[in-house]
Amino acid sequence: MIREDKIGRPIYSDKIWNTLLEIGKRLLKLGFIETKYSNLFTKDIRDENGTKLGNIFADMRGTKYCNIWDDPRPAIYSNTLSFPNLMKETIILNSTGCNPNLYYSIDDDHDCIGLDYLRDGEGEIIFPSGFCRRCNRNIINEVDWNVLSENVYDLDKRGINPIIETHYCGTCRKIEYSIDEFRKKDKKDVRICEICRDKPATLEHHIIYTPERIINICVSCHGKIHKFGKNYPNPLWKQRKNEIE
What we know:
The chain has 245 residues and is of the alpha+beta class. The protein folds into 2 domains: 14-111, no CATH class; 145-244, no CATH class. 29% of the residues lie in helices and 14% in strands. The protein contains 7 helices and 7 strands; from the N terminus they run H-E-E-E-E-H-E-H-H-H-E-E-H-H. The protein has helices spanning 14-29, 83-95, 152-157, 162-167, 170-183, 219-228, 239-244; strands at 33-34, 40-46, 52-59, 75-77, 101-102, 203-209, 212-217. The strands form 2 sheets. It has a 5-stranded mixed β-sheet, with helices on one face. A two-stranded antiparallel sheet has the order 6-7. The model is unreliable at 108-113 (pLDDT under 50).
């Protein structure tokens, strides 16, 4: 690795440089190799039979949208891997402390659109762990990660909750959907936020006024809706507006 970005500008910060070095060491342990372009790492991804599925890149040279000293996270992208395989590799990178920043390709200026479901209050993506939240079973090869690349409104119309789909095993997924249906029957004592599915839902938020339709959300998510607007991961956000358009 060299102490400069992709266009030769030096990295002055010792903190940023040490962070890059540490991530580089972790990438090497995961089977990545540094390419002829310094600070750009790649890895061939193969299936259980050894057949090559494609390759993945971890780029720590900065992008045209963000200097590496402003965001030292490796940009993760692939033009050959399917989205599910790219997602699985990114989760592994995240679990080993590489702090990845996932892109469809390095030329995109936005993260994968479906990942809006996974953003926290600061807009950062919190990747699934690859383990079931309920039984702790390894589900990284069980989940259909394509659900995170689909349109949020289409998923909602089909009754699909991407948080449930990507955080629970098949058995626990059915339980979560059943609990979700129970919560919708106005059971105040078990109601949780319909967005984060974690905190108690203490507020009602209108998504349609005529006819009236309300979602039950926590104080935190209510604030995020008004801060991030339509960019916040709410599949019902501005539904009426979208239907009219």
